[in-house]
Amino acid sequence: MKNKKETISLIELFWTFFRIGMLTFGGGIAMTMVMRHELVLKKNWMEDSDFFSIVALATAVPGVIAVNVAYLLGRRFRGWKGLILSVLGVVLPSFFIILLIVGILLPYFYNPLVVKFLRGCAIAVVGQLAFASVVFSRKSIRRWPHLAVCVIGIVIVGVLKLHPVFALVTVSIIGYFLFPNKKI
Amino acid sequence: MNKIVKILLDLFISFMIIGIGAYGGGMVTIPLIQHEIVVKNNWLLLDEMAEVFAIAQMTPGPIAINSATFTGFRIAGIIGAVVATIAVILPSLSIFTLLTPILIKYNKNEYFCRLRNNMQLGVLSLIFFAVWSYGSAVIDGFIDIGIAIAAFLLLFNFEKKLHPIIVIFTCGIIGLIIF
After folding, report:
1. pLDDT digit string, tens, across residues B47-98
2. B152-173: pLDDT as tens digits
3. What is the tally of helices (H) and strands (E) in chain A?
4. Which residue in the set A66, A124, A169 is minimally distant from B147, CB to CB?
5. String of DSSP letters for B88-110
6. Residue A102: what pLDDT?
């Protein structure tokens, strides 16, 4: 992969993240699946396992997940110039699209046809998120104790309604002591 | 100090708080955004806020950024949009900039790697929860469940061939026809 690193131009980096920012519905986690498609499956810039450890780090740190992933990947590929361009690339499309909507298109947003179309898209995002959880499970859950620990995290955030950070910290600590040799 | 500067400053602070509090994906952040904008600062009415979230969810891009641009524009025009958007991404960019030397230093450390690998299980919990929270917000009835499952199966079966956006748009067109 090393030789690939040098061949990625700054413009290509920016354009890739701009496209990702433009073509993603449903927020950060759904967005990581589009990133995976573009960066891992299509462009072959990195391996799945690499990508997942970056997504994990991006989720563990506060902030917008897609921006965090763009930061880490941009830096990895092209240093500080790369990270500025990737972050801009992922933020600018939503910035302009929202300005366009709030400034000009807002009345059309309530057109029944637009509402129906967007509702169909939003439902598909649920399928996409489910797909994301399957793709991640393939890498992280290989024995049933892994799943059990993961369920503890789901209970903390979904049933006990605690802040997600508690789920992440609890699961990480339990996993740390239970699975010392876990390699991902 | 004139009024517009004060508004921009308040916007900046509020969206910095949202940027720090944003955790585990957009849906989880919505209550925090609502608190800062509707309850604390009275910038928008609850109805207007619901409109912002509906639009933020259904347009491309992260929900926190969409809400920031939208709210910023509503309150103070283009400058407001720029200020709020920068404010919402600034905290995480700063945190990463501070963390980078530490991450590089401990990259090969056995304990650090062990913690990082197990952190992925915690992230997976948050992703499962995102399926639930997003699903319960948009899915209403058996037809919706059917569409979501169809989207999932398409993505799953044609993982390497089909770009996710094609599946999303296809479901949009299906929605256009059947809703």
Report:
1. 888 888 888 877 888 888 999 999 999 989 999 999 999 999 999 899 989 9
2. 999 999 988 888 889 999 999 9
3. 9, 0
4. A124
5. HHHHHHHHHHHHHHHHHHTTT-H
6. 87
Flag if A175 and B24 touch (Cβ within 8 Å).
no
Contacts of B172 (CB under 8 A, 6+ apart): A117, A118, A120, A121, A124
ipTM: 0.86
Contact by Cβ (8 Å): B166, A124: no
Place of tokens 């393939």: A138
Residue with tokens 């972050």: A87
First-to-final CA distance of chain A: 18
Q: How far is B130 from chain A (nearest CA, A)?
A: 7
B122/A184 touch (CB, cutoff 8 Å), yes or no: no
Hey, are the CB atoms on B81 and A53 less than 8 Å from each other?
A: no
The angle subtended at Cα B37 by Cα B35 and Cα B42, nearest 5°, is 105
Whether residue B120 contacts residue A171, with contact meaning beta carbons closer than 8 Å, is answered with: no
Is the minimum CB–CB distance between A137 and chain B shorter than 8 Å?
yes
**CA–CA distances in Å: residue A39 to residues A50, A51, A70, B40:** 11, 9, 11, 41
Residue A180 has pLDDT above 90, yes or no: no
Q: Residue A168 and residue B125: Cβ atoms within 8 Å?
A: yes
Interface test with A, best of B127, B138, B176 (most A CBs within 10 A): B127
Q: Which among A88, A101, A74, A167 is positioned nearest to B25, based on CA atoms?
A: A167
Best residue in A23, A24, A64, A154 for a mutation probing chain B (most B CBs within 10 Å):
A64
In degrees, rounded to 5, the angle at the alpha carbon of residue A62 between the alpha carbons of residues A158 and A22 is: 95
Determine whether the interchain pair B60/A101 forms a contact, defined as Cβ–Cβ distance below 8 Å: no
